[in-house]
Amino acid sequence: MKPRFSLATCVLALTLSAGLATAQDFSVIDPAATPGKARFFALAQEKFDEDPDALFNTTRVEPGQRQAVFECGMKAVLADMPDQDAQRFVDMIEGRAEADPALAKWFQLEESVNKPRHDQVAARARAICPQLAHLMK
What we know:
This protein is mainly α. It has five helices and no strands.
């Protein structure tokens, strides 16, 4: 059996996103234009629905805002990711492909680890959901 790539591992770094907010721009995850991103988002949503704390630390977010924060964070992370890379994540999560450490760059969101990616995702989040930008670290 092929090792499965953990969705929780992919989105563990969404701790940053926990401070990000509601997302109204669905173009990032349009199933027709970006099927890989849409499927990845759907898998992440399923995981979030099962256990919001499995994907990121929700303690800083009021329960009523957690879904919106999750959506914004996912969209901010996926915004600059090529759809092909998102599809590769899906294939890993669903056990059709081996884990690819090169893809980890998309989820290295800690400022101390990858400041350019951190700043890129933070800027996307502020653009997608400015109404909750005050929750950012």
